[in-house]
Amino acid sequence: MQLTDRQQRIFQLVLEGYISSGQPIGSAWVVAHLSGEISSATVRTELVALEQAGLIRAPHTSAGRIPTEEGYRHYIETFMHPARVDREMEIVEHELDAADDSPEEKVRHIARELSQLAGNVVMVGIDPRSLYATGMSRMYESPESADTELMRTVSHALDRADELMDELFDVASHTDVKILIGKENPIDENLSLMVTTYATSEGARIMALLGFMRMRYDRNIALMQAMKRLLEG
């Protein structure tokens, strides 16, 4: 479906509002954030059209809408731009300089920083057969952590991090950060995966970020790109 400018604007409000709040977005919220430019009736009509297009859905427990897997994909492919993370990276680089870590500890340090800033699980290759994984506790800060089955999946992925190496290499982009949402994600269809490789003198290593579909894709991809440069520096 080709969205009109108005539909695109409303969809972006729903998606970004949901990512920010974790709560389904209703028509009244959209009208308020459009400063009354569009009537409630028109907004409701457009929300129905977006739902029919498969970009948003209404959870059973709410009259509001949340993005679908296809909705997140549409956002990434059409109007997402990496956020600015210059200030955060200045702090990270300063901490790395002060720490004077060994090469292996530097990798772990960067993984922990990425996990803290993104609020997601991070897995980074230490050597050709070993992944360092961190960040499970960050996942519990999100409302989605109430889903015990989903959290068990994340925990299981961490437990078998080394076994995931080949799967991650199979789907990784060696030049940029690849985003795999839902059914594209080899780990679990209810999660999103960002994955890339970074170059070392001994060959490519994996760097991956695993989280709920509701994440700041614009911020996380910028952080991944910046951390990749640090690892290769």
Automatic annotation (TrEMBL):
One Pfam family of this chain: HrcA
Stretches assigned to coiled coil: none
SUPFAM superfamilies per UniProt: GAF domain-like, Winged helix' DNA-binding domain
Keywords: Repressor, Stress response, Transcription, Transcription regulation
GO molecular function, one term: DNA binding
Gene3D superfamilies: 3.30.450.40, Winged helix-like DNA-binding domain superfamily/Winged helix DNA-binding domain
Domain of life: Bacteria
Taxonomic lineage from the root: Bacteria, Candidatus Magasanikiibacteriota
InterPro entries: GAF-like_dom_sf, HrcA, HrcA_C, WH-like_DNA-bd_sf, WH_DNA-bd_sf
Name this protein carries in UniProt: Heat-inducible transcription repressor HrcA C-terminal domain-containing protein
Swiss-Prot/TrEMBL GO biological process terms: negative regulation of DNA-templated transcription
Heat-inducible transcription repressor HrcA C-terminal domain: residues covered: 88-221
Organism of derivation: Candidatus Magasanikbacteria bacterium RIFCSPHIGHO2_02_FULL_50_9b
